[in-house]
Structures are given as C-alpha cells and as structure tokens.
Amino acid sequence: MGEERSTKPLNLLARGMKVVGHLTAQESRSGKVFKRVEKKGTDLMGRLATNESYLHGVGRLMGYAFRYQAQVNTNLERMLHSWRLPTSTDVYDMRSELRRMHDQVEAVSVQLESLYDRLEQTQLLQTRLADAQNGRAA
Amino acid sequence: MAGSSILQRVKAAIAQPLEIGEEIGVALQKGSMSPYHYVKPLIKRAAGVGDPPVGSTPHTVVYTHGQMRLLRFEPAQRIFRTPILFVYSLINRYYILDFLPGRSLIEFMRDQGYDVYAIDWGTPGPVEQRMGWAEYFELIKSATRWTRRVSGAPDITLYGYCMGGTMALAYSALHPEGIRNFVAQATPVDFHEGGIFTTWTRPSHFDVDALVNAYGNVPIELMESGFSMMAPIQRSTKWLDVFRKIDDPEFVSTFLAMEHWASDNIPFPGEVYRQYIKDCYQYNNFCKGRMKVGGRVVDLSNIKTPLLNIIAENDTIAPPKSSELLTTLVSSSDTETFRFNAGHIGLSTSSKGRKQFWPKIAKWIGQHSELMLPN
Q1: How confident is the model at residue A9, as a pLDDT?
Q2: Are A45 and B233 in contact (CB < 8 Å)?
Q3: Is B125 exposed, middle or buried (0-12, 13-18, 19+ CB in 10 A)?
C-alpha cells in the first residue's frame, strides 16, 4: 500500500487536497510548523486527559447533566403519553420488529434445513442398519 | 452531438457537488460527531473510489434472538470438524473481524477450512437496555448451542475479541461444557491495568449509575466522544494523510473502510454497561474472582480448555499488561501467548494479518481442532 499510485489525472478537488496535504507534511516548512503545533496540542490534551482536577470537574458536570437529562426524559414521556402520542421508543420498536421478523424467517429456514439433514442422516443410518441385519439373517 | 456531450458534462459538474452537499447535509441533520461523515463525500469524489465493501464475506443467519444474530460463514471445503465461534464486543460492530475482502480474519479462517460463526449483537434498543451479564451470557449459550447444532460438531473453539473476549471468558468459566479451545484476542483481564479508560472511569470521576439512569442505553455521541478524547488532535489531523495519498486508491479505500467502521457506533446496552464499568474497570471484580452472575461467582480457574492469548504490543485499549495475566488465572495445562507488533484494531485489519498473524493463529487452532472425517 502507498506505492500503487493512480495514473489518472487528478481532478481539481484531489489537487486541492494534495496541496493541503503537502502544506501540512513534514517535508514542507509550513508542515514542520504544523507538526510542532500538533505535537504540542497532543501533549497538552494528553496531560489534560489524565489531570485529576480536570477529570474531577468534568465528572461532576457530567453527573449534573445526566441527572437533569433523566428528569427531562421522565417529564417528556409523561406528557406524550398523556396526549396519547407515540414516543420515539415506540417508533424504534416497530422498525426493529420488522428487521427481527426478517431475520427470524431466515434463521427458521436454516434451522429447518439442519433438521432435515439430521433426519436424512438418521434415515440413512436406519437403512444401513436394516440392511446389515437382513444380511446377517440371510 | 457535441452540444449534448457538453450538456451532459455540465449536468455532471453540477450534480456531483450537489450530491456531496446532500451527503454532508444528511450528516449535519443527523448531528454526526465523526468527521468521517463530512469528509468522506469529498474524499470519494477526489479519489474516485466507492463505498468500502466492509463485512462482505457471504454468510447466512442461523439463529436470532432479539437484536442478536448468529452468522455462519461456511467454507467451500471444510477441513476441520471443530467450528470457530467469534464473540465480538458490545462496542462498535462485529464486521471489523470481516473487514475487507483479502483483509478479513473471518474470511481467512473460512478459507483455511473452518466452519466459522460470529455473533452480531445488533443495535441495542429498549429491550437490550435492561439486559445484564446473565442475559448476555444466555445469548452466548444459545450461540454456542446453535453453532454445535448447525456444524454437527460436539464442541467448538470460542474466539473472543476485546470486550467480547472478556464476556466469553466469563461465560466459559460459568459454562465450560461444549468448549474445546479458547482464543482470547486483545482481551482485557486486569482492568486496573486498562490504561486511560481505568483513569477515566474511576468511581470518584464517573457516576455510571447517573448515566444509565439518564439515557438507558449509552448514546452513540457519548461513546464517540470517549474514543475521540483518547487522541483528539490526531482524530482530525489523520485525514491529512489521506489528502497526501489521495492518488493511492488502495490506501484511500482501506482508510475509508476503517473510518466507516470506527464511525459506525452503536449505543452500549445500559444495564450491562453499568455492570461492565463496575465489575471490570472500577472494582476489577472480573480479575479478582469477585464478579457474580446470577448468584454464581465467575472463577476463571474453572477454564481448563487449551487457551491461546493473543496480545497486540501497541494496544492502548487493552494494553498488554491488562491481558498477559490471563494464562496464570486459568487452570488450562495447555496455554500459549502470541504477541504481535500491532495495535488493538490492527490485529484484525492490518495488511500483516494475512501474512504474519493469522496463519500462526489458524495453525494453533488447527492443532487443537478435530478434523472432518471423510464421508
């Protein structure tokens, strides 16, 4: 990979992307600056992602947001049900039910096929057994 | 004649930007967080490539239960009687194991003569929201039963990947019957060595109960933001690599396929997420033999089958330190550890897979599998 280059002439969009790619690549002067900024940014984000105070603060904010969301959901569902309107959950259920039916039909057909194979094997075995018994009796 | 040709070219010149605009508009409407949905239309147009053919190995659905499907990838010529059942994680979709034609672990194993099965957990909805470990293990139990039934084999090779490996290990500890071999690929076991995720999910920072109570299933946006926080800068700047190699269709297609999978997030089923975070990341119960499922303790020493532990040296999701303990926790007398120079995803998608990683894995499984008897 990376060696098989297309021989087709590049369209305008591709040429534009190539230029952007070149300007941000290590080989160009602007790319060197870009890489330095990228590395600084990565280091900073890395430090932030493991900073205890930051994580504690974000965790607390998320906790508040989750509890608020739970309250909003309860109120919304209560309101929709009082108006006898379907909620998004109801629509989702109907859609997934259709998919489930399709898959189940496919699965049942495979299961029947497997059952049929087993029956065939059993019949074959019984025939062989009967033949062997007949042979012995003869 | 020339006039109609010019007209067609003008039409095409107008239609293509409109198509791009439409695709970006749809992504905006959906509120997609991943840059993939916004940049993909431009990349496809610039490189002249189509949608990546991910998950394209032919298969049949042999069993379903709710959203879960058991898929069968039947070989043209079956050599091994013992089938392989892949158990994938509840994060993202199973088809990373069936990535691209010629770069698919499932396709590779099938071509080696294995009857291959994989669990597709599907997209969790309101029903899955209330399913915990016990319910998911019941699904694995059904999948193992149907794998044996359809393949006609008395036992199987259970192949767990990532969190799917953790689940499959716990399942095997509780229900060892019918499992001939176990393969754990990039499977975290000691979650207090789980890298950045261990830090982020500490009980002091992360109230998992509040999250599950608020949303039921963990929303895609939250899952995505968690992953993007692992490398927020590279998440955007990696697209510049594609810009540079826009005239390399194979690179562009593989990159798009990877991004397609990475952005094809699904919600994480709520109840099992709560249990996963607590039992694994927060209290390490899984590793310490304290995890309980349906009143029974998950004791990894109950696993006595031959076990192969596959570790990716550059794994940041299941760091080597979190996986290497596994062989000491099980009671199997026949264990082996393979370490490959790859990342978490690279084990299943790297171009090195077909040449270096998978043949070794297939050989190990082959040595521990029953051969098909001639008819």
Answers
A1: 79
A2: yes
A3: buried
